[in-house]
Structures are given as C-alpha cells and as structure tokens.
Amino acid sequence: MTDRINQIIENEHKVVLSHIMTPDMVNFSGTIHGGHILHFLDQTAYACAVKYSRYNVVTLSVDQVLFKKPIYAGELVSFFANVNYVGKTSMEVGIRVVAENLKARTQRHVMTCYFTMVAMDEYMRPCAVEPLALETEEEKRWFKEAEMRKAVRIDAAAKHKELKK
Ligand SMILES: CC(C)(COP(=O)(O)OP(=O)(O)OC[C@H]1O[C@@H](n2cnc3c(N)ncnc32)[C@H](O)[C@@H]1OP(=O)(O)O)[C@@H](O)C(=O)NCCC(=O)NCCS
Description:
This protein has one domain (2-164): Thiol Ester Dehydrase, Chain A, CATH 3.10.129. Helices cover 35% and strands 32% of the residues. It is built from three helices and five strands. It has helices at 2-10, 34-53, 137-164, and strands at 14-20, 56-63, 76-86, 90-101, 106-120. A five-stranded antiparallel β-sheet has the order 1-3-4-5-2. A hairpin with a 3-residue loop joins strand 3 and strand 4. Bound molecules: coenzyme A. Coenzyme A (COA) is lined by residues 58-61, 87-90, 116, 118, 126, 150, 153-154, 157. Residues 58-61, 87-90, 116, 118, 126, 150, 153-154, 157 line the site of coenzyme A (COA).
C-alpha cells in the first residue's frame, strides 16, 4: 500500500483525488447528481495536467463521460488520473472512477473518461509541454490509444464544421 501511495506521489503524471458523497449532492432520483461528478473530474484533470506540465491549464474537451451506473450518498469516490499522451501543447488525462461502499468494503468501476487539457503561458497562449517519457509497455499502449482518440476528435471537429456550413 505504501509503495502504491509513493508511486502516485513521486510519479509526475499521476494523481488520485477522493471525495465522500454527501446527502446534499443527491438528485431527484436519490442518487448522486452528475454535475458533482463532472466538477470532481475537471478538478482531477486540472490537478494531473498542472502537476505534469507545471503550467496553468484549461480544459479543451471531455470524452466518454458515461453515467452507466449510479453513485450513492455515503460512497467514497476516487478519481485515478494519468497523463496518457502529450502532444506539443495538449495533454490527454485519463481518469478511472471507482466508487467504494465503505461499510460493505466493496468497490465498483464507475467509468473511465478522457480530458484534453492545454497548457497556457502567462499571456494565456498555448505553450509547449515536456514530452512524455514512456517507460512501460502499458504507458506505450495508452499513448498510442490516446493519439488515435485525438485524431478522432480532430476529425469529428472538422466534420462538424463542414455540417455547419
Ligand atoms: C484551449 C484553447 C486555448 C485552444 O485554442 P486553439 O486555438 O485550438 O489552440 P491550438 O490550435 O494551438 O491547439 C492547442 C492544442 O489543442 C489541440 N486541439 C485543438 N482542437 C482540438 C480538437 N478538436 N480535438 C483535439 N485536440 C485539439 C491542438 O492539436 C493542440 O494540441 P498540440 O499542441 O498538442 O498538437 C482554446 O480553445 C480555449 O481557450 N478554449 C477555452 C478553454 C476553457 O476556457 N476551458 C474551460 C471550459 S469553460
């Protein structure tokens, strides 16, 4: 356990944020309101991208936020973030969301989603970020997958622009 915590603290491209779900976060269906989860996701992506780049960052896009399973008040929700990809100025942060029932000691994987964050200089212009060092086979695979998702995003944005003409 200590090894895992040290790995996250020492690793400049990883962060974990955990939040307890309180009754004031509940929606009219009695489960946690998606807006709260979106807020925590954005905070986590921000923390991860700033920690890696050491620049201020802005959120450019969010993909694969799917609320397929509800989250309940009283659960501890952890957001495990990793910088998967670095281009020139943009970074893809992958976030694995795990909800934990503390009394039953059970965990559920709720979603994995992807944030594109852009590093900004002091004049609020996109600025270059250190390239990502890929050490493990898993990191190489995540990078490749993120690169493919970026191409899909750029293609989708271009097609959307065409449709709007
Ligand atoms: C983020 C922002 C600065 C990017 O501006 P831009 O004019 O697209 O800048 P660039 O063309 O230099 O692109 C910046 C990076 O984003 C990437 N990018 C741009 N459009 C993209 C898209 N549709 N999909 C994926 N990546 C994209 C570019 O490839 C580039 O990455 P790279 O340098 O790693 O190759 C600008 O869109 C912005 O200020 N957005 C508002 C951000 C904000 O306020 N967020 C909070 C939400 S309210």
